[in-house]
Structures are given as structure tokens and as C-alpha cells.
Design a protein that fits this description.
Blueprint lengths: L1 H23 L9 E6 L3 E8 L2 E8 L2 E5 L3 E8 L7 E7 L2 E8 L5 E7 L1
Antiparallel strand pairs: 1-4, 1-6, 2-3, 2-5, 5-8, 6-7
Length: 115
């Protein structure tokens, strides 16, 4: 009986401590809005890898993609031989956390963000 009371008390303390740390911002609650942004004046193709796996993306011009997870990796490749700059960003709650740019013909940019 004494072991059960001790175990119950221990679990209660761990749960309370975890809730307190989450409220103080010490733990990642997963509520962050994460986006991958591609900034380019032409056509591009790429991919995003997150907690759900990998997906192919493509477009023309500037685009943003919502994503989530502890580690985000993304890339994009220009589909032309111009010297225009392509930029890829990982944005968390409106703040750019990682950014890479390239002006090479058919250039590729890649970023990774997370733990």
C-alpha cells in the first residue's frame, strides 16, 4: 500500500512539473506556426521533409507552405538559366529562422531547422 501512495505522489509531481514547464515556455508545445517560403520570380521545384514525411512542391513566383515538426528540411531548384536570386526560408511564428539564397543557373537552395 505504501508503494502505491509513493508512486501516485511521484506521478502527480512529474505531471505538475511538466505542466508548469510547458506554461513557462520551457517545453515545446507544438503550437508554433511554421512555414517554408520560396521567393523567386520564375518557376521552381523542390521538397519539404517534416514530421509527416517528404512531399514534393512546385510553383512559380513566391509561395508559402505550412508545415510542422521538430526538424524541418526544405529545398528548391530554379527551373531556368537566369541569374535571378532564389531564396528559401523557414519562418516560425512570423520570424525568419533560416534562410539560403542562390543565383546560379538552375541553382538549388536548401535549409534545415530544428533540434
Amino acid at each position: 500500500m505504501r508503494k502505491i501512495k509513493f508512486l501516485t505522489l511521484y506521478i502527480s509531481i512529474v505531471v505538475l512539473l511538466g505542466m508548469t514547464m510547458a506554461n513557462l515556455g520551457c517545453l515545446d508545445t507544438g503550437d508554433e506556426e511554421v512555414q517554408v517560403r520560396i521567393i523567386y520570380e520564375g518557376s521552381w521545384v523542390g521538397s519539404i521533409r517534416d514530421q509527416d514525411g517528404m512531399r514534393t512542391i512546385s510553383g512559380s513566383g513566391n509561395e508559402s507552405f505550412s508545415t510542422s515538426g521538430d526538424i524541418i528540411s526544405a529545398n528548391a531548384q530554379k527551373q531556368d538559366s537566369t541569374s535571378r536570386e532564389i531564396t528559401i526560408q523557414i519562418v516560425v511564428d512570423g520570424e525568419v529562422k533560416k534562410e539560403r539564397s542562390c543565383t546560379e543557373k538552375f541553382g538549388i537552395v536548401q535549409v534545415t531547422y530544428g533540434d
